[in-house]
Write a structure and sequence with these properties.
binds carboxymethyl coenzyme *A; 18 helices; three-stranded antiparallel beta sheet; mainly alpha
C-alpha cells in the first residue's frame, strides 16, 4: 500500500500521498494543500522543497554519489568526453557510434557565429565582465534563430541544442578577446570541442595556438564534471523561466545570470582570489581558518560546503587528483595548490567544519586547473557555464515536454504594512 502523510493544522488532519523516486527518496505531494487548508508551506532557500520530478541527474549528498542518467560520475570522468556526456545528459542514453559522429559534426558545424553577431561584441565596454557578455550574447543569439523560438519536434530541438552547446564556447572565447581588445578568432574544422575552445581563446593572427594533450584532457574533464547537477540555483532558474513557455536561448541566458553569483558558479573565481590573497599577504593557513570560524569576520572558506553534499563532493575528489596531475605534467609549481591542500587538511580536521559537514566542493580545485590552462580569473565562471549548458538544455526540455506542467509561481508570507491610507504630499 502506498504511504500517506498526515498534516495536522488548525485542528484538522489532511492526507497527502508520498511519492517515491527510483532511488528510494521520498517526498510528500502537497499539491492540493493550500486549496484544502488555506495554509502554505514556507521553506526559504527551498532546502526541503522538491520543485519537480526529473530523470536527468541523481545525487545522494550523504554518500557523495553523483550520476548522470544513472551512470556514476567517476566512470564518465574516466571513460567519456564532454561531447558524449552532453548527449547522454540531454537524450538520456549514451550515443551509439552514428549518433556520436552526427552530434560531434553538428557541434563543429555550428561553432562559427553569424558574422553580424561579431559587431555586437563591440558594443560592450572593454572592462565588461565576460559573464555579462555571455548572458547577453546567448539571448542575442535567439534573434538570429527566430525559427527556433518555438521548438516543435525533435529536429528543431536538436538544432537549438547543438547551436547553444557549440556557440557558447565561441561566444565565451570572443567575450574574453573583446575584453582584452584582441581580434576574434574563427573556429577550426578539425579540432574537437575542448581543443577548439583553447584555440579560439589563445590563437593570434600571426600565431596559431596549439594546445597540449594534457590541457585538452583537463579541460574536457572540467567541462564533463560540470555538465549537470540537478536542481541547483541556475538550473532551477532555467526551469522557472522555461515554465513560462520561454525559449531555450533566453532560459539558458537566465541560467548564466544565476550562475554568476559567488555562492554558486562564481565560487571558482572566489576560491582562486582567496588562495592568491593568502599567498600575497603571507597569512598563515591556520590564521585564515580562524578568521573564517569567527562569524563576525563574515568570511567564508570559499569552495567549501554544499547544500546537498554533506559527506564529500565526488567532483572535488576527481578534480583534486586531476589538478595535481596536470600541474605535475606541465611542470608547474603552484604555491596555491599547496595552500589549497593545507587549507583542506586543516578544515577537514577542525570541529567547526566537521560539525557543519563542510567539505571541499567542485570549485575548490577547479580554479587551479583553469589557472594552469592560462584561463584568466574573470573567465572562470564562464567556463562553468560552458560546462553546464547540456544540463540546462536537458532541464529546459523536461519542462518543455511536460504537457501537464504548470508555470512556476511560488507563494509568500507577506510581512509588510497592513492596509493604510495614502497621505497627501503636503501632509507627509
Ligand atoms: N565557510 C564557513 N562556514 C560555512 C561555509 C563556508 N564555506 N559554508 C557554510 N558555512 C556555515 C554557515 O555559516 C552555517 O553556519 P551556522 O550553522 O553556524 O550558521 C552552516 O555552515 C550551514 O551553512 P548554510 O549557509 O546554511 O548552508 P547552505 O546549504 O545554505 O549553503 C553554500 C551552501 C554552498 C552556499 C555554502 O556552503 C557556501 O556559501 N559555501 C561557500 C561558497 C561556495 O563554495 N559555493 C560553491 C558551491 S558548489 C558549486 C555550485 O553548485 O555552485
Amino acid at each position: 500500500m502506498s504511504e500517506i502523510a498526515r498534516i495536522e493544522v488548525g485542528g484538522k488532519v489532511y492526507e497527502y500521498p508520498v511519492v517515491e523516486g527510483t532511488e528510494g527518496e521520498k517526498g510528500i505531494d502537497i499539491l492540493k494543500f493550500r486549496a484544502d487548508s488555506g495554509y502554505i508551506t514556507l521553506d526559504e532557500g527551498f532546502g526541503n522543497t522538491g520543485s519537480c520530478r526529473s530523470a536527468i541527474t541523481f545525487i545522494d549528498g550523504g554518500k557523495g554519489i553523483l550520476r548522470y542518467r544513472g551512470i556514476p560520475i567517476e566512470q564518465l570522468a574516466e571513460k567519456s568526453s564532454f561531447v558524449e556526456t552532453s548527449f547522454l545528459v540531454i537524450y538520456g542514453h549514451l550515443p551509439n557510434k552514428e549518433e556520436l559522429k552526427k552530434f560531434s559534426m553538428s557541434l563543429t558545424q555550428e561553432a562559427p557565429l553569424h558574422e553580424n553577431i561579431h559587431q555586437n561584441f563591440n558594443g560592450f565596454s572593454t572592462n565588461g565582465h565576460p559573464m555579462a557578455i555571455l548572458s547577453s550574447m546567448i539571448n542575442a543569439m535567439s534573434t538570429y534563430h527566430p525559427d527556433l523560438l518555438e521548438v516543435d519536434g525533435d529536429e528543431q530541438f536538436y538544432s537549438a541544442a547543438v547551436r547553444l552547446i557549440s556557440k557558447v564556447r565561441t561566444i565565451a572565447a570572443a567575450a574574453y578577446r573583446t575584453s582584452k581588445g584582441l581580434p576574434l578568432n574563427y573556429p577550426k574544422k578539425g579540432s574537437n570541442y575542448a581543443k577548439n575552445f583553447l584555440e579560439l581563446m589563445f590563437s593570434n593572427p600571426h600565431e596559431q595556438h596549439v594546445p597540449s594533450e594534457e590541457a585538452i584532457k583537463a579541460l574536457n574533464l572540467f567541462l564533463l564534471l560540470h555538465a549537470d547537477h540537478e536542481q541547483n540555483c541556475s538550473t532551477s532558474t532555467v526551469r522557472m523561466v522555461a515554465s513560462s513557455g520561454a525559449n531555450m536561448f533566453t532560459a539558458c541566458s537566465a541560467g548564466v545570470c544565476a550562475l554568476w553569483g559567488p555562492l554558486h558558479g562564481g565560487a571558482n573565481m572566489a576560491v582562486l582570489q582567496m588562495l592568491e590573497d593568502i599567498e600575497k599577504n603571507g597569512v598563515s593557513v591556520n590564521d585564515y581558518v580562524n578568521r573564517v570560524k569567527d562569524k563576525k569576520s563574515g568570511i567564508k572558506l570559499m569552495g567549501f560546503g554544499h547544500r546537498v553534499y554533506k559527506n564529500f563532493d565526488p567532483r572535488a575528489k576527481i578534480l583534486q587528483t586531476a589538478a595535481k596531475n596536470l600541474l605535475d605534467k606541465m611542470h608547474i609549481q603552484d604555491k596555491k595548490l599547496e595552500i589549497a591542500q593545507e587549507l583542506a587538511d586543516i578544515a577537514l580536521h577542525d570541529e567547526y567544519f566537521i560539525e557543519r559537514n563542510l567539505y571541499p566542493n567542485v570549485d575548490f580545485y577547479s580554479g587551479l586547473i583553469l589557472s594552469a590552462l592560462n584561463i584568466p580569473l574573470d573567465m572562470f565562471t564562464v567556463m562553468f557555464a560552458i560546462g553546464r549548458m547540456p544540463g540546462w538544455i536537458a532541464n529546459w526540455k523536461e519542462v518543455h515536454d511536460n504537457k501537464k506542467g504548470k508555470i512556476s509561481r511560488p507563494r509568500q508570507i507577506y510581512t509588510g504594512p497592513t492596509e493604510n491610507d495614502f497621505i497627501a504630499r503636503d501632509n507627509r
